[in-house]
């Protein structure tokens, strides 16, 4: 399928892997694809993201803290005898201020060396279900539009077609919805045509 991707779309997939690695996430998700596309200035669909206020920094911050607990979650945990403020204070006492806000430290350099002359190998990061579905859906989006190639705009449309609460929550935290993002991308594609 990747042979049908445009250069920009391929770069976005590689950048998604790097973003997941930098955030110390074990899998590449749809959120990493979205984040990667925000970094591709001038790629199809990025104008829609910019107009909606979805910047790389805002997206990275939202991806960095997915599923952050709100007051309702904290209250539910209090009923179980878990005080989030006490947990945070204990972690900061043991590991320093902001210990829960930063990713774990990186493994030592060269931890996967193959022989003395090779460079450190970066571990493979697999796609999670949402990323796989978004990429598969991007192919369908391109076919429905009768486009020969799969571009970043199709990947965005694939992300908006996901039926998962995590992606919808991420977009909500960025001030939009899957429906609004989809409408914006389609509107921009019509304007270009």
Question: In a nutshell, what does this entry contain?
Answer:
The protein is an all-alpha fold and 193 residues long. The chain has a domain at 21-67 and 128-164 and 178-192: Double Clp-N motif (Orthogonal Bundle). The protein has helices at 7-22, 30-38, 46-51, 56-64, 71-79, 84-95, 129-144, 152-160, 165-173, 178-192.
Description:
- The chain has helices at 7-22, 30-38, 46-51, 56-64, 71-79, 84-95, 129-144, 152-160, 165-173, 178-192.
- It is mostly helical.
- The mean pLDDT is 84.
- InterPro entries: Clp_N_dom_sf, Clp_R_N.
Task: Write down the CATH topology of the domain at 21-67 and 128-164 and 178-192.
Answer: Double Clp-N motif
> What can be said about the biggest beta sheet?
none
Task: Calculate the terminal CA-CA distance, rounded to whole Å.
Answer: 25 Å
What is the mean pLDDT? 84
Contiguous helical run count: 10
Low-confidence blocks of residues: none
Proportion in β-strands: under 5%
CATH class of the domain at 21-67 and 128-164 and 178-192 reads Mainly Alpha
Overview features:
193 residues; mainly alpha; Double Clp-N motif; 10 helices; globular
Topology:
Blueprint: H1 7-22, H2 30-38, H3 46-51, H4 56-64, H5 71-79, H6 84-95, H7 129-144, H8 152-160, H9 165-173, H10 178-192
Helix pairs in contact: 1-2, 2-4, 2-7, 2-8, 7-8, 8-10
């Amino acid at each position: 399928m990747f042979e049908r991707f445009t250069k920009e779309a391929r770069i976005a997939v590689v950048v998604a892997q790097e973003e997941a690695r930098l955030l110390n996430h074990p899998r590449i998700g749809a959120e990493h694809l979205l984040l990667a596309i925000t970094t591709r200035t001038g790629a199809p669909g990025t104008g829609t993201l910019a107009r909606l206020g979805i910047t790389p920094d805002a997206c990275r911050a939202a991806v960095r803290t997915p599923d952050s607990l709100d007051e309702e979650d904290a209250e539910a945990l209090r009923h179980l005898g878990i005080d989030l403020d006490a947990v945070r204070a204990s972690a900061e006492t043991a590991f320093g201020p902001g210990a829960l806000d930063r990713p774990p430290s990186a493994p030592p350099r060269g931890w996967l060396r193959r022989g003395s002359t090779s460079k450190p190998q970066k571990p493979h990061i697999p796609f999670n279900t949402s990323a796989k579905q978004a990429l598969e859906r991007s192919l369908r989006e391109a076919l429905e539009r009768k486009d020969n190639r799969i571009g970043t705009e199709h990947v965005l449309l694939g992300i908006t077609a996901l039926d998962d609460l995590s992606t919808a929550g991420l977009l909500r935290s960025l001030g939009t919805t899957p429906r609004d993002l989809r409408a914006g991308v389609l509107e921009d594609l019509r304007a270009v045509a």
